[in-house]
Amino acid sequence: MIIVIHSQANSEDRTQLLALLCQASGSQRPITTTRIGGQEVIALDNNVLDAQLHLAISQQRAVECIVPIKTTYKLVSRAFKAEGSKIRVGDALGGQPVVIGGSDPVIIAGPCAVESREQLLATAHAVKAAGAQILRGGAFKPRTSPYQFQGLGLEGLHLLAEARTETGLPVITEVMEPELVELVSQYADILQIGSRNMQNFPLLRAAGQNNHGRPVMLKRGLAATIDEWLLAAEYIVAAGNPNVILCERGIRSFDPQTRNLLDLTCVPLLHELTHLPIIVDPSHATGRRELVPTMSRASIAAGAEGLILEVHPDPNSALCDGRQSITPEQLQSIVYETNLVTQILTRKAGLPYVA
Length: 355
Ligand code: PEP
Ligand code: MN
What we know:
This protein is of the alpha/beta class. Helix content is 34%, strand content 16%. It is built from 11 helices and 14 strands. The protein has an 8-stranded parallel barrel with strand order 7-8-9-10-11-12-13-14, surrounded by 7 helices. The protein has a 4-stranded antiparallel beta sheet with strand order 2-3-1-4, with no helix packed on it. Strand 9, helix 5 (181-187) and strand 10 form a beta-alpha-beta unit. The protein is globular. The protein binds phosphoenolpyruvate (PEP) and manganese (II) ion. The site of phosphoenolpyruvate has 9 residues, from loops.
């Protein structure tokens, strides 16, 4: 269930409610509230409450109403918030504002890893010229082998900030450790939580509590079910941050022909289950640059709110994920095709519409 706190509740009534909820949840952790769509809310698992406690909570002066939610995830559910969430990014650090989840898909593009000043700035300018709206680039890289390039770390964050200043593009970069959330938030417009960390619960909580209020893009775990993924998103939202973007990046499968299996079914399915916007990553999903343009079109046609694409000025020399990185020229045609598909879907093209 979701408890909606009265907008006029005084601090004494609030404290009393929070103390009761703390007791009800049986947890040592202080209860955190989240502001979603203008309401301050707290979710609880119905099963932890007996009838008496339920009644006591509903009678609290600070409670405006209680919304029953049947699914295990609550705050991220479409049952709770019917309208899709629109997440505005980019203003805070001087970039140009972008809305994820608005009427037009958003394209995020850039190198897998920030490799050098020259490489990042050249890519950032090319990404901007191609018409993408947000720059990606890993400063802290989660690599399968400890001997592979691990990223430039803090220097990479400085370069991302420089690229934002030069191009106006807001930036997204990965954070792997709870202790680094505040540092990365000083530089990044969006925090990326990677697949390997989708169930790193302390990291999810820290991202949910980040003091800068940065939105979080949560990538689907390597073999995560939709429910596990939504519950991971719920951790971030329950910790106080309503601005979560889901990213489908392919799941583990049996066929080594592609790096992962792009689960596009999840896009319309998630639109039923959650109000959070969904971005698709055809680069990590396929692992092969020649498949990226087609799967980008398919992702937009499936209703994704955007794409995240790996782009490199010279993909064959990339220090990380070159095989799946497209060139700036390919990015330009993906941006063009994304606009075409969007026009068809929204009937802006003036084509006759057949349901
Ligand atoms: C990435 O975006 O560079 C990345 C490491 O992705 P994932 O977490 O999906 O593997
Ligand atoms: Mn990558």
